[in-house]
Write a structure and sequence with these properties.
With 699 residues, the protein is mostly helical. 84% of the residues lie in helices and 0% in strands. Helix 2 runs parallel beside helix 17. The longest helix has 56 residues. The radius of gyration is 24 Å and the shape is globular.
Length: 699
């Protein structure tokens, strides 16, 4: 390998991040794990979380094996390499989730113990755990792409054929992400809803009370949903945006580059090679920026926790912009691409701040919902839905602005680079997000182990910010999903045009025209079907949470009734039974939504052709992004409105109304909403991979 930048940033940076992550794990594990009771509770949570992950991965292994067989057997061209890339993407995504889960389940009890000393130490432990998740995701994602691109000949003038095979990695990452997000979301929200309704509302006992059999399952769910699930979600966004950018670089023509940037046709080959490497190099520099940013997250003032986390993200973002400028200076990449990076980075930060406004505990929307809760659960739910719908406006305009300006600078490639720019600081932005469930678990352990009240106060201060950072993380994921899906859609168009041209204008299509105009009825039909799918998918996942929660509520009621002394605190609940119910339900219920996402593009393509498939992707992108924003933000603000009321009016009718609203919002923000951004990306990458088969079917 004769490219020192590729060696340094494509290989060296992710390896350094992996080493740094393991240093953080060692630092966390050396922390005090608290009393014997705290360690017993932590062991129950960890065993439940890892048992769920083992069960989920054993089911997913079957799916991965079947998909590998389908890819190798039916795809034209380098089908074996596509299959191998698919396996690599799936395995790396699962590995990132496994490492993040083990770290988070060990860090929570140490965060509780640290909170006995100071808020600053507790923040450091919780954030370090989140940083492990973030750095693991970017390290595995970047290294996986860099290694495969090198092995497939991308550095030796075979970039166009290398990317054909590399697309399989994006499919593998997206497949694991959807099942992990849906399965983890169903698990966590079934336990959360059951715990709230049977405990706080019916029995009148506090949240995370050790008498409630669903409490351990709820703590397990925080990890499987918001650590492993969110990690897999952003892993596939990260991988997808980089691969789409590389693919679009190789799809550029000399004429297009000349019109865009005034590049001479004789210099085009070198510029194109640098454009293809730039996303990987930028991701590597983003890893370095994220590591440096983690050192700035420090505070001992509970009112400044949010600011400390944001400071780390801002520092990393500034370093990325400086690094991007440096990369452009030493390569032949046009300076216009720098603007695309900046648009993506700035859009990510702005979407995060907008989400903070709409979901933050100390912001007007949460206060409005708290006020509306005084007249009952109906007005609470109306207010929450209104805030969720209103919150779609500004983030969508920010996404539109990023698309418009990046397209002006670099057309489809510019949009893809904006997505890479937005995700370039994922090492720290995911750390900011994944710190939340650790803080939440720490509060639960403090409650169950009967720590001093000030300990729970400190963990609650971290948790309240964690709710906002989790909502910010979801907004960030949705914004990046929109840009990534659009970049993948451009890749789909390029691959479809190439496949049609090779087939000699199959199905009556002119190879220069795919029939994607709105006047084509197949496009409109596809758009309606695509627009419908996020609603059907959300209904399936919401109903799955409802069914699972019903079963667990009945089990909690049975234990309260049949275990003598349980409500009095003289007997122990059977927590394992609730964990088993959530595990069984989540694994069973995740299969159908996952199959819908994989099969819908293929079936639509065979029935309506390339034009109908393009319409499907466009329709799903629009409604999916809007629904995801609405559901994630509504759920986040319902949760923080409840926490705002709990500061002064816990146990009142106003509080009970807020608990019901929060219960409605739980599957909104942690199951259906976050899964939608994976749905639109998974359907797009499935379309990209299988479009040659669709064209062949049309002949």
């Amino acid at each position: 390998m004769d490219n020192p930048l590729y060696l340094l940033l494509g290989f060296g940076a992710p390896i350094a991040a992996a080493i740094f992550a393991f240093v953080l794990i060692g630092s966390i594990n050396r922390r005090d794990a608290g009393s014997e009771r705290m360690q017993q509770i932590s062991a129950l949570i960890r065993s439940g979380a890892m048992a769920f992950l083992r069960t989920e991965y054993s089911v997913l292994a079957v799916f991965v094996a079947i998909m590998f067989g389908i890819l190798v057997a039916f795809l034209p061209g380098n089908s074996l390499l596509v299959g191998v890339s698919f396996l690599v993407g799936a395995c790396l995504s699962a590995t990132a989730g496994w490492i993040g889960m083990r770290t988070a389940t060990g860090a929570a009890v140490r965060t509780t113990a640290a909170a006995q000393k100071s808020l600053a130490v507790a923040l450091q432990v919780a954030f370090s755990s989140g940083a492990v998740m973030g750095l693991t995701v970017v390290a595995l994602g970047t290294l996986g792409i860099a290694v495969l691109y090198f092995l497939y000949g991308g550095l030796d003038g075979e970039g166009a054929s290398a990317i054909e095979s590399l697309l399989g990695m994006s499919l593998g990452a997206s497949s694991i992400a959807l099942f992990a997000r849906v399965g983890g979301g169903i698990f966590t929200k079934a336990a959360d809803v059951a715990g709230d309704l049977s405990g706080k509302v019916e029995a009148g006992i506090p949240e995370d009370d050790p008498r409630n059999p669903a409490t351990i399952a709820d703590s397990v769910g925080d990890n499987v949903g918001d650590v492993a699930g969110m990690g897999a979600d952003l892993f596939e966004s990260y991988v997808g945006s980089i691969i789409a950018s590389v693919a679009l670089a190789w799809a550029l023509t000399a004429a297009a580059a000349g019109n865009l940037w005034g590049i001479d046709s004789g210099a085009f080959a070198g510029v194109q090679a640098d454009l293809a490497l730039f996303p990987i190099l930028l991701a590597g520099f983003g890893i370095i920026a994220s590591m440096l940013g983690t050192f700035t997250v420090r505070t001992d003032d509970e009112s400044k926790v949010q600011g400390a986390l944001l400071r780390g993200l801002i520092v990393a973002s500034v370093i990325v912009l400086i690094g991007a400028a440096g990369l452009i200076q030493v390569t032949s990449v046009p300076w216009a691409v720098m603007w695309c990076v900046m648009f993506g980075v700035v859009a990510g930060v702005v979407i995060g701040k907008l989400t903070e406004y709409y979901t933050g505990k100390d912001k007007p929307p949460a206060a409005h919902i708290a006020e509306q809760s005084k007249t009952g659960p109906a007005t609470n739910i109306i207010a929450g839905l209104g805030v969720g719908m209103m919150s779609c406006g500004y983030p969508v305009l920010v996404i539109c602005a990023a698309i418009f300006f990046s397209y002006q600078m670099g057309e489809q490639y510019g949009v893809a680079i904006a997505a890479v720019g937005m995700l370039s600081t994922l090492g720290i932005s995911l750390g900011v997000d994944a710190y939340g469930p650790v803080a939440d678990n720490a509060g639960g352990i403090a409650e169950m182990s009967k720590c001093e009240p000030f300990v729970r106060d400190r963990t609650d201060a971290l948790d309240a910010v964690g709710n906002t950072t989790a909502a910010m993380g979801k907004g960030f994921a949705i914004g990046s999903a929109a840009l990534t899906a659009l970049a993948l859609f451009s890749t789909f168009q390029a691959k479809a045009a190439d496949a049609v041209a090779q087939a000699g204008g199959a199905g009556g299509f002119d190879p220069r025209q795919l029939g994607l105009e709105l006047t084509n009825p197949n496009v409109l039909i596809g758009m309606f079907i695509g627009g419908m799918l996020p609603f059907i998918f959300s209904a399936m996942t919401m109903n799955a949470v409802g069914r699972s929660a019903n079963e667990m509520i009945e089990e909690v009621r049975r234990q309260f009734k049949n275990i003598p002394g349980l409500l009095e605190g003289t007997a122990e609940p059977d927590s394992a039974k609730c964990v088993a119910i959530s595990t069984r339900s989540a694994i069973k219920e995740m299969i159908l939504p996952g199959l819908l996402a994989v099969s819908a593009p293929v079936l639509t393509g065979f029935l309506l052709g390339v034009s109908g498939l393009g319409g499907l992707l466009a329709g799903a992108l629009v409604t999916g992004v809007l629904m995801a924003l609405m559901m994630a933000n509504a759920g986040g603000v319902w949760d923080n409105a409840k926490k705002l009321i709990e500061e002064t009016d816990k146990g009142t009718d106003q509080h009970k109304a807020a608990v019901i609203g929060d219960t409605v919002g739980d599957p909104f923000k942690d199951t259906s909403g976050p899964s939608l951004n994976i749905l639109i990306k998974l359907m797009t990458i499935v379309a990209v991979i299988f479009v040659p088969l669709v064209v062949g079917w049309m002949q």
